Amino acid sequence: MELGKYNTLEILRDTSVGLFLGDVEGNDVLLPNKYVPENFEIGDMLTVFCYLDYDERPVATTLKPYIVRDDFHLLRVAEVNNFGAFMEWGLEKHLLVPFREQRTKMVDGQWYIVFCYLDEKTDRLVASNKLDRFLDNEELTVDNNDEVNLIFTRKTDLGWEVIINNLHKGLVYANEVFKEVSIGDKQIGYIKNIRPDNKIDVSLQPLGFLSLEPNANLIYDELKLAGGYLDLHDKSNPEDIKAKLKISKKAFKKGVGTLYRERKIEIKDDGIYLI
């Protein structure tokens, strides 16, 4: 049984306060009545999330938290008091970010990327906004051209800092971001370059697309988001193009022409289609 993670446990007994669930090592935990399923039998297996309640006792819930242990996520501050900032994470008891784990003093109602971990000293689940502590670029698990999962964490003068596969830190240069992104956004990216000091440059497009001009990249991304089809074409109203893509009709035609020559799209009477 692991705190901060989902556990599949056996129903051991039914009591007035809820079900007691157990693991193969003989540990048990209470699933309070409000989370007990309508139909169950002793011996059934349930998947639950385990954490500490207000009295610091292990408890199980069928609620799904926004973040789990050893994970990064964008969370909102519910309140700040003398102990630190308490984040909303989908459970009754908020997740604490102690003052020592805040990169800058957190503000009530604001959103921050945090990392959830088990504090070895207190055996409690806490979170940290000092993200670099939990990222390692010494031993890399990625290589050039790899497709990776990204989380956008901070905008700098150079571009966007990103978390790669929940393990490493990377950078997407500002002149290679062709759409609006925000802190906490998640998307697929590609390892563009690993430097001698193990700093990682990341692309948001497959590397063959680096030679494409920006509007082609933008249109290609929008096509993927739209499921492979956009109802825009040569005869579309310029205002419709601007409303959907935030670019002019001239820029749209140039981008479409580039994608067509690269055999990335099909052009039909009713719009453009991703190949």
SSE arrangement:
Layout: E1 6-14, E2 18-22, E3 28-32, E4 45-52, E5 58-61, E6 71-81, E7 84-88, E8 95-98, E9 111-119, E10 124-128, E11 147-155, E12 159-164, E13 168-173, E14 186-194, E15 200-203, H1 214-225, E16 229-230, H2 238-245, H3 249-261, E17 265-268, E18 271-274
Parallel strand pairs: 13-15
Antiparallel strand pairs: 1-2, 1-4, 2-3, 4-5, 6-7, 6-9, 7-8, 9-10, 11-12, 11-14, 12-13, 14-15, 16-18, 17-18
Name the CATH architecture of the largest domain. Answer: Beta Barrel
End-to-end separation: 47 Å
Shape: elongated
What's the Cα radius of gyration?
24 Å
Q: What percent strand?
A: 35-45%
Helicity range: 10-25%
CATH superfamily of the largest domain: Nucleic acid-binding proteins
